[in-house]
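Subject: sequence -> structure tokens, single chain

Hey, anyone have a minute? Need the predicted structure for the following. Not urgent.
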Amino acid sequence: MNRRTAQQRDRIGAQVLVCTTDRDSEYACCADAGADAVVAAVESWLRDRNAFWSPIAVTETACLGLCSADGTAIAIQPRDEWYSDVTVADVPDLLEREFGPDAASIDRRAADA
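Reply:
Had a minute. Here:
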């Protein structure tokens, strides 16, 4: 086992967690609400600004506890920002609000709106 905390802290300033849970259930899940397309939109937005993986990482996760048939759940850490019902159309505004138009604002939390 190798502890790599310091290396990751130096490399990554923020992490976008996108729920991609897929379950066979009567309850909504992010996979059925377009999670794969939302992940692709997040990655594309960050790549277009040269901010994918360093300094901003994108991670697909299991359930974040914000299930909805209306969109995907996203958490941004270490900012402790949580979003539900995120669609592909929401991604540019959400990420610009969090990171600025050029993805350069990784050291501050989003302004309350």
